[in-house]
């Protein structure tokens, strides 16, 4: 009874959808991604081959995030048929070893930014290079093993020209695609849907969720549905790493055990459920399957290269004087660190030259990677000191590519968010043709944007591979300072 009722709803949802002929009409973009990681169970190679071939036969390009050691294993097993089939899709990267200990959130947990980035590159760089060598293409995206997330991996993504593609809630901007550390981030999304590959009775429910997500997204002007699988799920009864590396275990390769495998019938059923799920999604003319790099193009940052004139700067400064958070202006968004950079450069140049009325976007400086100064009550400074500090801060940001954790008003240190508010107020005065006030106040100011990066919470680290009691408070503190770089990514047109 319940089943037929749900069927009716999904059918109705389908029937009432208009066939969009117009390119400007909203579209629903489905990103199908596969964490291709099991280097232990040989049958998972066949599963990757079959899933890739099936999608190819459907005219769909998926995104296969490959583990470095999975790529090396395919090579050593001479599974060039699998490599060839996967190459017809987009290739991403999914860490070097995935679940051997320590995993990324652990090995960066006690490190500061720069050492964490270097350590991430030292451990994870060789796997990325192996994926490129074996597949003959540069991987386009990265996502962490399990919930082993770390902020420093975003610096690696930037260096490797990758987007971040995974699912988790360390950075969570209301379920929207966003930019973090200057990297396009598909992470905590509202519409993350899967059909259970083992329970045919749940397929209707997944179809219904898909149809509902589609309608919501169309009503919002379009958007992304993210769907994740692992090729090994078609053939195993339990994850390859759970049987070997659970709760901090780290046996040598000679002791790795095979996970138990599904029967042939069970595997067949999983392929059938997936084929039915794909067929359901494909029937909507406004649904389009895209890869990670296609998503990055759709959500390209419109702030890049933009010149901001007096009206733009006035709007930016007004909002920044109210709250230190990302801003949306027309079709573009600005992260707080970008606002800090734009306004300090504008004020500094304008004080030196009254003819300056605009400033060009120069990228996304990182948030502070040093300790942030505390400010509990207002401090005052004079015009000369403010002007000299402003020039020095501009130089600091250009030199270090990040905001200072302490802005020095002579011998008095203040946090960057407090300084930004004063700079925003000064911007408005200068744009109104007023002179720089002789006495300026810097007041305690909350970093409002920080709420979008999770605080340390044991539930962030509930992945079975972590050692029991896993905590990473320092890592989340480092991550929260990068909330400065956060902004929504807006859907443009191809
Ligand atoms: Zn994984």
Q: Mean pLDDT score, rounded?
A: 95
What proportion of the residues is helical, as a percent range?
Answer: 40-55%
CATH topology of the largest domain: TIM Barrel
CATH architecture type of the largest domain: Alpha-Beta Barrel
In CATH, what is the homologous superfamily of the largest domain? Answer: Glycoside hydrolase/deacetylase
State the separation between the terminal residues, measured CA to CA.
43 Å
Number of helices: 16
Small molecules in complex: zinc ion
Poorly predicted regions: 1-22
Count the domains.
2
Largest sheet: 5 strands, parallel
Write out key terms for the chains shown.
five-stranded mixed sheet, TIM Barrel, alpha/beta, disordered N terminus
